[in-house]
Amino acid sequence: MTMNSEARHGLDTGSGPADLALVKRALRGESEAVEGVLVRMSCVVRFVFRLNRKLGYRLPSEALEDVVQQVYLSVWPRLDQYVGTASIESWVFGFCRNCLRAEARRRGHRLRLVRPMTAGDDGGGEAPEPASDEAEPEQEFARVEGIEALRDELDRLSPDERVVVELRHLEDWSFERIAEQLELPASTVKDRCYRALTKMKGRLRRRDVSA
Amino acid sequence: MSAPEDREFEMLLAAHGNRELTEKEERRLRELAEKDAAKAAEVGELDDVLAAFAAERALMQSVAAPADPGEEADEAYQRMQRSAASAAEKLRSDTLHAKPTARVLDVPRRRRHLLWIVAAAAVVIAVLTFAFQGSGRPGLSTNVPDDKLAGSDVAKIRMSTELRVADPVFRWEASDGARTYDVVIEDADGTELFARPDELARSREWRLTEREVETLRAAKAPVILRIVGLDGAALAVGTTGDLVVTLIE
Predict the structure, then answer these.
(1) Angle at CA B68, nearest 5°, toward B63 and B73?
(2) What is the pLDDT of residues B78-95, one digit of tens each?
(3) Do A89 and B64 count as a contact with CB atoms less than 8 A apart?
(4) Phi-psi region of B247 (alpha: psi -120 to 50; beta: other; left: phi over 0)
């Protein structure tokens, strides 16, 4: 079986090790590095703004301001947990997702209750942005629900499983690269990845049945 | 399906899950799946998970695209930028001003030696005092500090795992910084039996339904309960770890 060609992901700038060095310097209190990390974190605004639209949360701007603050306050104390397997932006993306979702839940927002907007709707907000112009609203709704369910299940994996699944299926890394990064045999990485995926598959099926 | 075909199917399915199949191998996988409805369903479920990952990758790429001037002109976007700037300023100020400042003692070398000797003597006296204390006097606690005091990132959440069928409620203590609690019950194989509904996520108790109690009774023992306390960013701040549930009839 051959390896898929490794696509370069939009968030993965391949600068993990360099970013890790920057973060370590920031943790030592070097002012230039602190500034460098803060500059890299300016992506938070763009990520939160777009995720809010694309996932159909439709949170008002004051809530989005809170989310932005929450992301900064969540990322900073955890800088020592950044291991450099992906770029700073990629790492921060996860915080944006989680903080946005947490804020939406706090406000009683349930994604599955958001109806996709159709022509003539007057919901006062924006519909989830379609993946393509051809996407039907119901298909689009299902796609967004699928992504949300996937994120929930990713959060429930053990850290060892999660890092492998994220690097393979979200960052598009080859198993060889993951094995090298994690200093594990490639066979172990593949087994761990598939086992985690099987776990997620079962849980997603049960969610579907109970929904 | 024959045993060799079964093995071939399992191997191809794993490679499919890991996105390692060639087109020819994928055709073979689907050919085998067509022979058995259960196997076809397995492939279908895996396809769904892979499709969700593909959608997530597409989402990440579109979110990461360079800033668009039209977007930056949006009022909400500008307010968010101001919010980010104020958060960054606070972090910058806290981080750079919190740097520890080393104070150099301007003490002659000989006097520094004397200071060390005095400090060492004080430590020896303190140790001897504690070591020879009688049983009637206050002694050093032999308790192991809990995770929080030991400096663990994730604190321990304590609770009783005895579940009375007459009043099937789990309750647990609050975890510092936790806004919500993710609660899940698994059987001995690690298969999830059920989880607490999201709408109850902020509560520190969970009342099981009759049906859920029945599921617990029928499950392969030991049944495991795990609670994870999550902060505002949905990051774990506390956990019970894996606890064995005892059902009391």
Answers:
(1) 120
(2) 999 999 999 999 988 888
(3) yes
(4) beta
**pLDDT grade for B50, boundaries at 50, 70 and 90:** very high
What is the structure's pLDDT at B83?
A: 94
Lowest pLDDT segment from A10-19, A43-52, B99-108: B99-108
Q: Is B77 on the interface with A (CB under 8 A)?
A: yes
- Residues with Cβ within 8 Å of A59's Cβ and at least 6 positions away in sequence, in order, are A52, A67, A100, A103, A104, A107, A109
Q: Which of B96, B212, B235, B108 is nearest to B163 (CA)?
A: B212
pLDDT tens digits, one per residue of B94-112: 887 764 444 334 444 555 5
**Could you tell me how many CB contacts below 8 A there are between chain A and chain B?**
190
Parent domain of B216: 155-248
pTM: 0.58
Candidates A93, A15, A1, A16; CA nearest to A55 is A93
Identify the CATH number of the domain in which residue B192 sits. Answer: 2.60.40.10
Q: Give the model's pLDDT for residue B129.
A: 59
Count of CB atoms within 10 A of residue A160's CB?
A: 12
Q: Is residue B49 part of a domain?
A: yes
Total domains in chain B come to: 2
DSSP letter string over A28-91?
A: TT-HHHHHHHHHHTTHHHHHHHHHHHHTT----HHHHHHHHHHHHHHHGGGGGG--SSS-HHHH
Residue A63 forms contact with B (CB below 8 Å): no
Residues 157-176 of chain A whose Cβ lies under 8 A from any Cβ of chain B: 168-170, 172, 175
Query: Averaged over B219-229, what is the pLDDT?
Result: 85
Instruction: Report if residue B60 sits inside a domain.
Output: yes
pLDDT at A70: 94
Q: Which domains, from first to last, does chain A contain?
A: 13-111 (1.10.1740.10), 136-211 (1.10.10.10)
